[in-house]
Amino acid sequence: MATQLSVEQSGRSPRTPGEIEVPASTAWPLVLAFGFTLMFAGLLTSASVSVLGVVLAVAGCIGWFREVFPREHLESVTVVFEEHRITTERRVVERVPVAPDLVRVWLPIETYPVSAGLKGGMAGGVAMAVLACAYGLLKAGSIWYPINLLAATVYAESLKLGPAQLNSFHADSFAIALVLHGVGSIFVGLLYGAMLPMFARRPIVLGGLIAPVLWSGLLYSIMQLLNPLLASRINWFWFMASQIAFGAVAGMVVMRQERVSTRENLPFVVRAGIEAPGITPPRERGEK
Questions:
Q1: At residue 22, what are phi and psi to the nearest 5 degrees?
Q2: Predicted local distance difference test score (pLDDT) of residue 55
Q3: Disulfide engineering: 199 pairs with which of 92, 96, 167, 203, CB 3.0-4.6 Å?
Q4: pLDDT digits over 134-145, tens only?
Q5: pLDDT 10s digits, 161-194
Q6: Distance CA 70, CA 137 (A)
């Protein structure tokens, strides 16, 4: 009786046992978002578009607020109860035998040392340089052409060189290109050494084909904005081929190196960790 009176006083009808009240569906947030979109789009098109956006944004704000104030709009949703019974015939919990001698497992269990990334980066850099110089010799008639183009990415004076001067040796451009190529190759080689152990299946395909193609596509899409003059002089077919050569050689060199255990799996680090229930075997937890 008390429940019925409280329901009647509140002005709401009693809910059936199989229903719950949730916030009512509304389209005002979409109207508000569309209004803000038109407001900023009008900055590039016309002032009338911004005016329309302001009107829609104000209408969206008012409509959205009225969904909550002074009284929240609710709707009843039918609840379908399903009984789930979990049964099993097993008497013990099975554990995946990834590393049974460790209290906790860090993946990857083994990785390549830093020296593997350095070796892979230097070997890939040599392969990339050989292919780039071959392009310069076959297409431009000089091995200094790709070197001067590489230096032009950060050295503005190289962009002022004419076609004939790009085929000649310049000590400043050569030094800058050598530093750029060496540092970039080493960093990418270290990245290969850190990432390849995470890919168990065909890591050489990722490092030697997929990553270079994606990187070349990214540079192709933004180079026109960064440096239009340099973009007009790059042969993208040879550029992608040199990137693939770097990735393939660096990946093969890294994968030939001997793996080492990760730092987290050292004995004193493992013992210092917190043993989570369900991971440590019963005999190690000391059951009563």
A1: -130, 160
A2: 92
A3: 203
A4: 888 888 788 888
A5: 676 777 788 888 888 888 888 898 888 888 888 7
A6: 78
| Single-letter code of the amino acid located at 94 | E
Higher-scoring residue by pLDDT: 81, 4: 81
Locate 96 and state its tokens: 């995946």
Residue 130 φ/ψ, nearest 5 degrees: -65, -45
* DSSP assignment of the chain: -HHHHHHHHHT-PPPPTTEEEEEPP-SHHHHHHHHHHHHHHTTTS-HHHHHHHHHHHHHHHHHHHHTTSSS--EEEEE------------SS-----S-TTSSS--SSSEE--HHHHHHHHHHHHHHHHHHHHHHIIIIIS-THHHHHHHHTTT-HHHHT--HHHHTS--HHHHHHHHHHHHHHHHHHHHHHHHHGGG--S-HHHIIIIIHHHHHHHHHHHHHHHH-HHHHHH--HHHHHHHHHHHHHHHHHHHHTSPPEE-GGGSHHHHHHSPPPTTTS-HHHHT--
* Location of structure tokens 């050292």: 266
Please, what sign has the CA dihedral across residues 38, 41, 42, 46? negative
What's the alpha-carbon Rg for the chain, to the nearest Å? 32
The tokens for 183 are: 């540092």
Residue with tokens 């719950």, as numbered in its chain:
20
